[in-house]
Amino acid sequence: MKSYRKELHFRTDTRRAFVNITPQVEDALRESGIREGLCLVNAMNITASVFINDDESGLHRDYERWLEKLAPEKPYDQYDHNGYEDNADAHLKRTVMGREVVVAVTGGRLDFGTWEQIFYGEFDGKRDKRVLVKIIGE
Predict the structure, then answer these.
(1) pTM for this prediction
(2) Fewest Cβ atoms nearer than 10 Å: which of 29, 75, 78, 122?
(3) What does the pLDDT look like over 40-79, one tens digit per residue?
(4) What is the DSSP string of 36-70?
């Protein structure tokens, strides 16, 4: 069994963003040489997320509105966490959207369902963040 590890680095220009990272994960899979196995992709920061869904701009806007209803950014003083920082909402959004995804690798490709893509969700941007890609298999 082989194992491959790669970090992806992000710094968004906005506080919140959804970035399709499927091409970067596919590049990592090719670099690994693994043809059969599993691919883990996880956010390495507590205010960012990795999830799978459709790459459709209307859906991304729906996510933004829905997440703001669940955990609005402002007013900052509504959260006990906010004091030193103003990102309590980002922690809550990350919890809802998830930390990681695992995708089967079959024949050297990510084994997706129809329309599935991997996304990096940023909820407290404008700073350096990392995503781990860990692939195991043969």
Answers:
(1) 0.96
(2) 75
(3) 999 999 999 999 999 999 999 999 999 999 999 999 999 9
(4) SEEEEEEESSTTEEEEEE---HHHHHHHHHHHHHH
Nearest-angstrom CA–CA distance, 34 and 42: 19
According to the model, what pLDDT value does residue 84 have?
84
Instruction: Identify the helix (H) or strand (E) that includes residue 128.
Output: none
The domain of 37 spans 2-137
Q: How far apart are the first and last CA of the chain?
A: 5
> Domain tally for the chain?
1
* Non-local CB neighbours of 131 within 8 Å, separated by 6+ positions: 7, 8, 9, 10, 21, 41, 42, 43, 44, 48, 50, 120
Max intra-chain CA distance, the chain: 51
CATH of the domain at 66: 2.60.120.460
Backbone angles phi, psi at 46, to 5 degrees: -75, -10
